[in-house]
Amino acid sequence: MSAGFESMWAELLPIGRDAGSGGYRRSAWTGADADCRDWFEAQATARGLTHETDRNGNQWAWLGDPTAGDAVVTGSHLDSVPDGGAFDGPLGVISSFAALDELRHRGVEFGRPLAITNFVDEEGARFGLACVGSRLAAGQLTREQAYELKDADGVSLPQAMERAGHDPENIGADPDRLGRIGAFVELHVEQGRALDLSGDRVGIASAIWPHGRWRFDFHGEANHAGTTRLEDRRDPMLPYARTVLAARERARLAGAVATFGKISVEPNGVNAIPSLVRGWLDSRAPDQETLDTVVTAIEQAAEEAARSDGVDLTVVRESFTPVVEFGHALRDEMARLLGVAGHGEGTGRRIPVLGTGAGHDAGILSASVPTAMLFVRNPTGVSHSPEEHAAEDDCLAGVTALADVLEGLACK
Ligand code: HGY
Ligand code: MN
Ligand code: MN
Ligand code: MN
Questions:
Q1: Which atom of ligand 1 is nearest to the CA of 357?
Q2: Distance in Å, CA 123 to ligand 4 centroid
Q3: Binning pLDDT at 50, 70 and 90, where does residue 341 land?
Q4: Which of 179, 215, 293, 307: CA 20 to 30 A from 44?
């Protein structure tokens, strides 16, 4: 990797990495997150950029006047899912700093302010809602709603912010700040294999699938695991298990995806039949109608299963992100700039344009700001796992592509 890229990677890599799993545990407002934020500020300062943390905890590193308006902004996030990979988020932030280094090396002259961002709490791993920092800034999450968010230990978001040294008093919409952004480009490791299959190093996002998170609460009756006859049980684990299997089948039939990846059981004892099994569904689909169909089918299957086991069920939709179609103006300009710069020549094809089922801050911001995404090839497509990977030369191709886009957008 180029010296700058390599040294940034080497500094960031150990932060929040679990020695056992090799995965990352960088939940928002934890110690690991604080170390990542310190790293971000040091990178900004080392480059003479003006570092600031906005009211919602998002970090910005500015080149030029932050108040001038029409800024070109690039960046991503540094937090991770539990035992997440090294690239999801950090590749975008490191590539942004490396692309700026490349532009300075080219000796370009900037005609617009440039900023690099780290959006806080993109994964939503701790408080259950993804993209908290960008949702707050974009007014898609109110201060009141944010104050309701609690982690598994009952620590509220504002408490966690305060303990991490960030005053939560003024969290909320930041229209002036977003109004000063003329274009936002997020580089991200692809979370899928489209580029691997097409043989391209980089690609452009067309859309983000509609997706959401639903909480299924199966209420049964706690009882003794050893003395309660099977016919006398109201065991919520059974309808939960049936629902997990039904979700996979309904998603397969609908051409969607559905995952029950998180569960909580009360009282959670080996020798106790649970009183409550709480399961979280993450479901996504290429379009809204398919998503509605598959979630309705899963809810119906859960209700039938609960009824047959004498268990009560409540379903709560905890979050939802509608389909994001990235605007053609910036997306096509990015494709033009990449074409002019010769990206894709190796394959003789135009830069591939691909949809994704993964949510991103860019998806949230696209409602307020012209936004585009650049993907870097992931040879296995694996993400949200310690196995997540991107090859060195693909990462550097991503940096060059981002630099070419930023030069075209921000320079005279
Ligand atoms: O869940 C997502 O798609 C994103 O990685 N937060
Ligand atoms: Mn992610
Ligand atoms: Mn991400
Ligand atoms: Mn993202």
A1: 3
A2: 7
A3: confident
A4: 179
Are 326 and 366 in contact, with CB atoms under 8 Å apart? yes
Closest CA to 87 of 378, 360, 405, 362: 378
- CATH number for 211-321: choose from 1.10.275.10, 3.30.70.360, 3.30.720.120, 3.20.20.70: 3.30.70.360
Indicate if the alpha-carbon torsion angle 81, 83, 88, 92 is positive or negative. Answer: positive
Angstrom distance (rounded) from CA 57 to CA 41 = 13
Beta bridge partners of 116: 61, 74
Q: Write out pLDDT tens, residues 226-277.
A: 999 999 999 999 999 999 999 999 999 999 999 999 999 999 999 999 999 9
Contact (Cβ atoms closer than 8 angstroms) between residue 294 and residue 209? no
CATH number assigned to the domain with residue range 2-209+323-410, chosen from the 4 options 3.30.1490.20, 3.30.70.600, 3.40.630.10, 2.60.120.1440: 3.40.630.10
Give start-end residues of each CATH 3.40.630.10 domain in the chain: 2-209+323-410
Ligand 1 atom closest to Cα of residue 358 = 3
And the tokens for 151? 């982690």
Cα separation, 315 vs 303, in Å, equals: 10
Band of pLDDT at residue 204, cut at 50, 70 and 90: very high
Q: Which of 83, 87, 91, 122 to mutate to test ligand 1, by most ligand atoms within 8 A of the CB atom?
A: 122
